[in-house]
Specification:
The chain is of the alpha/beta class. The protein is built from ten helices and eight strands. The chain folds into two domains: about 5-155, 3-Layer(aba) Sandwich (Rossmann fold), CATH 3.40.50.1980; about 160-265, Nitrogenase molybdenum iron protein domain (Rossmann fold), CATH 3.40.50.1980. The strands form two sheets. It has a four-stranded parallel sheet with strand order 2-1-3-4, covered by helices on one side. It has a four-stranded parallel sheet with strand order 6-5-7-8, sandwiched between helices. α2 (about 35-45) packs across α5 (about 115-130) and α5 runs antiparallel to α6.
Length: about 270
């Protein structure tokens, strides 16, 4: 079954369960991550109150639930999650009779990649339009404007690297897809700092030296500065990039990540 059919089937279940909005009041939607929250805010505008649980600057996989999060979920019309949040089941258990329904996004992959982000926008626009039919055209119009911003940001991000000879890279696993999208060759990846062992560091140093690595890129959410000492040993340049939209603004974050990399090459 295609993702579109799966999404439609899930939406039909939500509507049948009484989750369709009647218009007038704003929808209250809880987003599990900054990825989801950025899209919901961009498409929903003032028709939606969006509450993001896991802050953009921290790892959403290691997120501590607070009473305020339980309270937010308790009054929500809908909870939207990406599907990999291990803490979500614990949050659900805190709600004996949750009013909100839960929607799990079918868009997989790294949402910081423009093509993946576009798919997420399409999915969540359809979700909002189904929940609030009165505002459906507004949601679609806002989505079109937002996607134009995404496309412009993607072109701007790539422009700094087009036609250039780019250095080889070591990267945190969550940043490797973005680097490859820009045209960098990622020769090896690594996980969180607590996963580093002597053998892993030896492997990375060996691959980095053999490949004449020029940059080492860490992931802000999973370990800023984790590869700094490795970069120093390899005489390579180092930077931290974010894997989630900061300030709920994906296009601006995409461009800023690219600018951070471009400054390394100056």
């Amino acid at each position: 079954m295609s993702r579109r059919l799966v999404t439609g089937a899930v939406l039909a279940v939500l509507l049948a369960a009484g989750c369709q909005h009647q218009g007038g009041d704003r929808l209250t939607i809880v987003a599990s991550t900054a990825n989801v929250g950025a899209v919901i805010r961009a498409v929903g505008g003032d028709r939606v109150e969006c509450i993001t649980l896991a802050p953009a600057g921290m790892c959403p996989g290691h997120f501590d639930i607070r009473p305020s999060h339980v309270a937010a979920v308790a009054r929500a019309d809908l909870i939207v999650r990406q599907g990999w949040e291990d803490w979500f089941d614990g949050l659900a258990r805190e709600l004996p009779e949750p009013r909100a329904r839960v929607y799990t996004c079918s868009t997989g992959g790294n949402w910081m990649l423009p093509d993946v982000h576009r798919r997420a926008v399409g999915e969540l626009t359809g979700l909002l339009a189904g929940l609030d039919s009165v505002a459906a055209d507004t949601f679609r119009s806002r989505a079109a404007v937002y996607l134009a911003r995404v496309d412009s940001a993607a072109l701007l991000a790539r422009a700094s690297f087009s036609g250039r000879v780019l250095p080889r890279a070591l990267a945190a696993e969550h940043q490797a897809p973005f680097l490859r999208w820009l045209g960098f060759r990622v020769v090896a990846t690594y996980g969180r700092p607590e996963e580093f062992t002597a053998s892993e560091l030896t492997r990375l140093a060996s691959v980095g030296a053999d490949s004449a690595v020029g940059i080492v890129i860490d992931n802000l959410q999973s370990g800023p500065g984790a590869g700094r000492s490795l970069a120093e040993a390899l005489h390579a340049r180092h930077a931290d990039l974010t894997n989630f939209p900061l300030d709920a603004d994906y296009p601006a974050t995409l461009v800023e990540n690219a600018r951070t990399l471009a400054r390394l090459l100056e």
